[in-house]
From TrEMBL, chains A, B:
Gene3D superfamilies attached to this UniProt entry: MoaB/Mog-like domain (3.40.980.10)
UniProt domain MoaB/Mog: residue ranges: 7-167
SUPFAM superfamilies given in the database record: Molybdenum cofactor biosynthesis proteins
Protein name: Molybdenum cofactor synthesis domain-containing protein
Top-level taxon in the UniProt lineage: Bacteria
Family matches, as InterPro entries: CinA, FLAD1_M, MoaB/Mog-like_dom_sf, MoaB/Mog_dom
């Protein structure tokens, strides 16, 4: 059976302006990969309702799970919850349990309208617990809405993932070679043709000013990965370059 | 006149698997912003022809300029040039000038079929010079195809941008406050409503375990940005928090 898929919608002007470099995609992709869920697309859109609606509808239709990051705080530029509600034609309503949690978290004099708006979520959505700063995320259909701040998002995702239906864990094995990828290319092409169940990627790099190439073998079957790596080791011996096997790792 | 827009298509399994954190979006967005071109969307897709075709067509129709990164090297997983050709229904052909450059760059014994495939580009495309490693990028219609390796991509983009029609430079000014954004939210909402030409973003953070908030004022009119910042300073005096103005910067 093929693995479930996931997409990520990153919502935020600060990523598109270049001010902030997103690191959530990498974290989410690796955690999901370990659970056997393969990330197959990501999109980054600005804080504009129509753009969020268009993107979340497209991704919800094309992947098993959608995750969103960003735009669920208390300020005017936090429009994710309202946009998701509009995307699925449901009203945005004050969630009583979310309000209770927020009122329990803030001292009474610090509760204000802006903070309580973080309890407004689409009708029918269920909450995603936030063990760091209380304000919850939510799940509506196959869309999982998370905050953009990594130290808050990460523990929320860690709690969420065990509730999802996954698949065989995705694994990768990296072999680093002291040779330019242009020299390896013909052999790699044949290797990929004969090891179809393993995704073989070639990534050029440098060490001490000399070219090196990382070959990444990725898949769900450790024995198929092992077979492809052994075939690559044969290629290395033929062409005569050194290859350092960095071992199997979760994605 | 409104600014031209740009989108970025990041092509690569290594980004979607979480193995590599993309930093090209941030660099490209900042260089374009300085030239008055606003990044309005980014997508990340795997090394699959149909997915590249679908994304590049959508982005070419919705933004003034499209940039792509990744997938133009010599190996089997480098399928960007062929995919762009298919997206616009033109043949992929060996470009004589690109071949001449590659043959001049590599010692004769290092020229091979795989490396010469880097001279195969869509018919009618023009070359983007590569001052680092020779293999060129290309422009077809409004699509600008660049490599994924940052130290090669960056100087190519720097040479390319002056050839594009830009607009008024995008600028930002950041004010950091020693207050949680939940306290600032109501005032910021009013501020945004009365300073519509300036995009006001609020980004929560921490310093020494205490909450702080970065307020980012972004736009093309330095006087409008200045006016919004002064209005925010009034707000700071009213609420009674300290605000450190980090000054105007190119985006």
């Amino acid at each position: 059976m093929s693995n479930p898929t996931a997409s990520l919608l990153i919502i935020g002007n600060e990523i598109l302006s270049g001010r902030t470099i997103d690191a959530n995609l990498s974290y989410i992709a690796r955690v999901l990969g370990t659970a056997g869920i393969r990330m197959t697309e990501a999109r980054i859109v600005p804080d504009i309702e129509a753009r969020i609606i268009e993107a979340v509808r497209a991704l919800a239709a094309s992947t098993t799970y959608v995750f969103t990051t960003g735009g669920i705080g208390p300020t005017h530029d936090d429009i994710t919850a309202a946009s998701i509600a509009r995307a699925f034609d449901v009203p945005l309503v004050r969630n009583a349990e979310a309000e209770r949690r927020l009122r329990a978290y803030y001292p009474p004099e610090k509760v204000n309208d802006a903070r309580l708006r973080m309890a407004d979520i689409p009708q029918g959505a269920s909450l995603i617990d936030n063990p760091v700063s209380t304000a919850p995320g939510f799940v509506l259909r196959n869309v999982h809405v998370l905050p953009g701040v990594p130290r808050i998002m990460q523990p929320m995702l860690d709690l969420l993932v065990p509730t999802l239906t996954g698949g065989k864990p995705l694994r990768s094995r990296t072999v680093v070679c002291d040779e330019a990828e242009g020299v390896l290319a013909d052999g790699l092409r044949q290797l990929q043709a004969t090891h179809g169940s393993v995704e073989i990627g070639s990534y050029p790099g440098q060490r001490d000013g000399r070219p090196e190439t990382s070959i990444v073998f990725r898949g769900t079957d450790p024995r198929a990965i092992e077979a492809a790596v052994l075939a690559f080791a044969d290629l290395a011996r033929q062409i005569g370059f050194a290859a350092e096997d960095q071992g199997l790792a979760p994605l």
